[in-house]
Structures are given as C-alpha cells and as structure tokens.
C-alpha cells in the first residue's frame, strides 16, 4: 500500500478529481484525531475551513460511526451529506424506525453494567448502534474478553465488530459504510468517490471500491487493509485536502 503523497499517489489523486467525485470522510481518526473519550473529539478550524472550500466545488460527505446528530454538532462546516452509525443512519427516520430493535442488547448490557464498569468499559448507546469502549481500561485485553463474554448471548441476533479500542453492536442487516458511499455516489450522479478512513468499519468501502475510485487509509499499521493508498496521520489528511484544493484551483 503506497503513500498517497509520494510517487504515483499524486497522479491517482489528480485522476480521481477529474471525474468530479464524491468526497467522503470518516470522522474519528480521519478528520479528527482519536480522543481519549468520544466527547473530546474535535476537527481543527483549519481542516474545517479546507472542507468548507471543497464543498463549493464537489459533493462532500462525512460518514461516521457516531450518530448523525453527534457528528453534525462537531462540524464547523456544512457537508452535503452526514451519515451516522457506521452507515445505518442515512435517513432521518431511521432512528425512530429501527432503534427499538436494539432493545434486547440494551437490556443485556444494563444487566451487566457492573461487570463492564469494573473492567473499565463504558457503554455508548448511539440509537442504531451501541459502542463498548475500553480505551481507558487498565487491562485492555481483559476488558475486551469481558465485552465478548457479555455479548456472547446476542450471537446470531445482532452483528458485532471491533475497532480501535471499541466493540460495536448493530442490527444483523444494518447497512455498512460501503452501502452508504455507493448510495451517495448514485445520488450525486457521479461514478467516482474519494474515500478516507482509518478503522475496521471503513474496510468495506475499501474492499468494494471500483478500480477508478480512490481509497485512502489513515495509518499503515494494518497490512491487510484493502485501501489503495495510505497517509500516516490526521495531520497528513489536512495535507491531502490542500492537494485537492490545489488540483481544483480552489
């Protein structure tokens, strides 16, 4: 996986931009640095300003594991699209329609609240998904084992997947980020997307992207990633935005 800002990455970026693509970004670990707790994550004013400028030239989407309301409140610019809950929350009525279907998971987690707290796990209910964070746990491996033990009775009823110091619970047929990005490409009437993400829930986009899309992973630690290119940090994402603006003459 080559670095986007070296060698052929610049050519790939210029080529994708000529196709008038959808620009789609994850939030945590991509636009905003990973924070110790979810409520502390912020996008810098500089990055927000660059994204606002890009919005004048191309459709821009933020596609996050957070709820739509949460991520929208953390943006100092207005993207064309905000999708929450790992791709589940594309429509405004999705929460009211499907949120109650997670009630069995909520009840189980409530019954195990003491064990989870003792392991250093915090539970974040986002309406259409539930995140069990263990970033602050003193023994992360033990915390993850506790989470998986607690969730075991839900196997087959819900889908679970990991992330950076988090385990997520969603409905078994919940749309993922791949479905969201492909849907938005169709809505925009284009045939191309540039997608930037950093975590497990971004891999379905990387894996499903046609060859003429441009996919970029933040971080090189996962050698199995299906992204076409990588950058090393959220600081380098800001540099990518600069390169986009330069190519667009913006």
Automatic annotation (TrEMBL):
According to its UniProt record, which cofactors does this protein need? Mg(2+)
Q: Which domain of life is it from?
A: Bacteria
Report the PANTHER family cross-referenced here.
TREHALOSE 6-PHOSPHATE PHOSPHATASE
Q: List the Gene3D superfamilies hit by this protein, alphabetically.
A: HAD superfamily/HAD-like, Trehalose-6-phosphate phosphatase related protein, domain 2
Please name the GO terms that the record assigns under molecular function.
Answer: metal ion binding; trehalose-phosphatase activity
Whether Metal-binding counts among this entry's keywords is yes
Q: According to its UniProt entry, what is the function of this protein?
A: Removes the phosphate from trehalose 6-phosphate to produce free trehalose.
**Which reaction(s) does its UniProt entry say it catalyses?**
alpha,alpha-trehalose 6-phosphate + H2O = alpha,alpha-trehalose + phosphate
Tell me which UniProt keywords the record has, alphabetically: Hydrolase, Magnesium, Metal-binding
Spell out the protein name for this chain.
Answer: Trehalose 6-phosphate phosphatase
Instruction: Report the InterPro entries cross-referenced here.
Output: HAD-like_sf, HAD_sf, OTSB-like, Trehalose_PPase
Family membership noted in the UniProt record: Belongs to the trehalose phosphatase family.
- The protein's organism comes out as Ramlibacter algicola
Pathway where it operates: Glycan biosynthesis; trehalose biosynthesis
Pfam families given in the database record? Trehalose_PPase
Query: Which GO terms of type biological process are on file?
Result: trehalose biosynthetic process
Q: What is its EC number?
A: 3.1.3.12
């Amino acid at each position: 996986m080559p670095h986007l800002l070296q060698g052929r990455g610049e050519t790939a970026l210029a080529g994708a931009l000529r196709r008038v693509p959808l620009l789609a970004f994850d939030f945590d670990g991509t636009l905003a640095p990973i924070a110790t707790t979810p409520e502390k994550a912020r996008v810098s004013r500089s990055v927000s300003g660059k994204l606002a400028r890009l919005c004048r030239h191309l459709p821009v989407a933020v596609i996050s594991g957070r709820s739509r309301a949460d991520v929208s409140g953390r943006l100092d610019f207005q993207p064309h699209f905000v999708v929450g809950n790992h791709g589940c929350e594309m429509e405004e009525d999705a929460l009211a329609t499907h949120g109650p279907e997670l009630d069995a998971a909520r009840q189980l987690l409530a019954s195990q609240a003491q064990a989870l707290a003792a392991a250093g796990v915090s539970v974040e209910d986002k309406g259409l998904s539930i995140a069990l964070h263990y970033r602050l746990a003193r023994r992360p491996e033990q915390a993850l084992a506790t989470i998986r033990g607690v969730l075991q009775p839900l196997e087959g009823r819900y889908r679970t997947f990991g992330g950076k110091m988090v385990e997520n619970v969603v409905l078994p047929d919940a749309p993922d980020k791949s479905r969201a990005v492909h849907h938005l490409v169709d809505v925009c009437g284009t045939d191309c997307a540039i997608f930037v993400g950093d975590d497990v829930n971004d891999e379905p986009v990387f894996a499903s992207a046609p060859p003429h899309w441009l996919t970029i992973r933040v971080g090189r630690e996962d050698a199995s990633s299906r992204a076409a290119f990588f950058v090393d940090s959220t600081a380098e994402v800001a540099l990518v935005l600069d390169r986009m603006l330069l190519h667009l003459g913006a």
